[in-house]
Sequence to fold (299 residues):
Amino acid sequence: MAVIKLEGGFALITGAASGIGKETAFTFAESGAAGILLADIDESNALVAAEDSKKLAVDPAYRAIAIHVDVTNADSVNSMVAYAVKEFGRIDYCVNSAGVSIAIPFPTDIRRLTLQCKIDISTYFIPFSNSSVEDYDKVMRVNAKGTFLVTQAALKQMSVQEPRDVTTTRNRTRSLGRGTIVNVASVLSFGAIPQKVAYIASKHAVLGITKVAALEGGPLGIRVNCVCPAWVRTAMFVEECTRAPHTADIIKAMISQGRPAEPEEVSESIGFLCSAAGSYITGVGFIIDAGLTLTAHLG
Fold:
């Protein structure tokens, strides 16, 4: 793991039962966090992740607590934040990783893939006009509304906390402000591809929510950013590969390193943004894509 220092800080992580959220909990534990509230709609797996994080923690007083949350429900989100404050006294880092996609095959530019991958993926496409309203609503509720509710609740709590200082290299003191929020968006927050209208609309919303929150949080000493990864090797990615077996060929053709990101490559970027090393960064959509957007037509 890269060197990230989060000593003494308390974190709230949603979507912490799996994927990027779980890996972020592990990264934070390894980086010296004093406590983490791992929140997920799947409380049982959040509990497993909490126990696993304890094995990685470097703070001898480290605490990891699992809790159920429905990020689409304001009361549930507010109760989660209140519980974190009750247990830890404050929230220094809030990471919103809860998110969903819809189980449809992954599309991209047919002509480019036909030439580069020599595969026919035209049967994977579903026109915008046939997209399900129910699917759209589900994705927007979790990805967009959920991000709004968690960011709003975290901002309210952080705004009443005292600023926190840390000692950086060469014994310098640096202010971390009242707190830091990192949302998980997508490289598709900056563009679009066919067939994923709900997912793309929701991730554009995450970027917009992040930027507005950063503008309002800045004067309060609160930084708000989002990470924007391309493919990440999570359970959701594995399921996508099962539905669309040519996904690996697509990645080899479009990603310079020929592979998806590992979850820790995203979680360590989140840790950087939360740490003193990222103390002058706010309102950013931090792209993690091995150069995909340098050549791909995303907007």
In short: The beta strands are 10-14, 35-40, 63-68, 93-96, 165-167, 173-175, 179-184, 222-229, 285-288.
